[in-house]
């Protein structure tokens, strides 16, 4: 007969546990109260650099320990990790702070109209995030000559504003005469027409982005875009050549800083105008 007064081996229970100790990850920050496992010294973190952790206890005593030692927080074994840095707020290409991700807004009644496809692509590239946050739609005019008809169909009014961006809006230009006539017309109070002084939106891209000091001067009588392509040594015989040239130019635009201020200010003005009353 065996004496079974002991159901198990009490010595076995005293053997050290095999395997690594599970340690909770804790960000190592100033002021964190930590206990050094070996010495049982407890104090707040006052410094941690070059592999050394300094703790200060309640009485003001300071002791230094290797960071590789074992430490406890609230009686639990811990592994120190670097604290997470707060994420910097992302800026959009227009320079504004990006809004948090949210469902797209329903398009607002007001609109921004631009002369052509290249204008719309550049506005979308730089201000697209802002436009989506505000629910602003950009539409094409296919030339300033169609502006009066487009506005008559759009029927601007209170709460339904129209912002218009025109090329070559300078004294004596056709675009300026069109803008002045509309401003005096029935829709004038709810329409804002602004523009830049450049013949085409291409020229609103800073020439330095293409390695130029200034944009080439194109003689009268030569299509401006065709003349630019020829002056820069690019293919210029077809519409596809012109489209490729624009993609090359637009590809150099990273954000609003790569555009001339005369364009940037006018687009911002239009966004503010059509956003009023949302």
UniProtKB/TrEMBL annotation:
Signal peptide: none annotated. This is DUF3097 family protein. Residues 25-83, 110-275 form the DUF3097 domain. It holds the Pfam family DUF3097_N. The lineage of its organism: Bacteria, Bacillati, Actinomycetota, Actinomycetes, Micrococcales.
């Amino acid at each position: 007969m065996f004496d079974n007064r002991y159901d198990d081996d009490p010595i076995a229970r005293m053997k050290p546990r095999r395997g690594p100790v599970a340690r909770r990850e804790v960000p190592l920050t100033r002021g964190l109260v930590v206990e050094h496992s070996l010495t049982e010294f407890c104090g707040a973190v006052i410094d941690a650099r070059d592999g050394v952790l300094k703790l200060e206890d309640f009485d003001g005593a300071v002791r230094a320990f290797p960071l590789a030692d074992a430490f406890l927080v609230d009686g639990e074994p811990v592994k120190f990790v670097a604290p997470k840095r707060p994420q910097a707020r992302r800026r959009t290409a227009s320079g504004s702070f990006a809004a948090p991700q949210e469902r797209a807004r329903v398009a607002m009644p007001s609109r921004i109209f631009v002369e052509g496809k290249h204008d719309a692509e550049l506005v979308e590239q730089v201000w697209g995030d802002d436009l989506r946050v505000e629910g602003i739609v950009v539409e094409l005019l296919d030339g300033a000559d169609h502006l009066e008809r487009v506005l008559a169909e759009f029927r601007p009014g209170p709460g339904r504003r129209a912002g218009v961006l025109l090329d070559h809006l300078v004294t004596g230009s056709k675009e300026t005469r069109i803008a002045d006539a509309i401003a005096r017309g029935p829709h004038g109070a709810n329409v804002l027409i602004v523009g830049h002084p450049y013949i085409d939106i291409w020229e609103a891209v800073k020439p330095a982005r293409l390695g130029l000091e200034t944009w080439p001067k194109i003689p009268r009588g030569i299509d401006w875009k065709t003349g630019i392509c020829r002056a820069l040594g690019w293919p210029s015989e077809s519409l596809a050549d012109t489209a490729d040239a624009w993609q090359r130019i637009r590809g150099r635009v990273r954000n609003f800083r790569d555009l001339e201020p005369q364009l940037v200010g006018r687009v911002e003005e239009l966004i503010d105008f059509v956003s009023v009353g949302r």
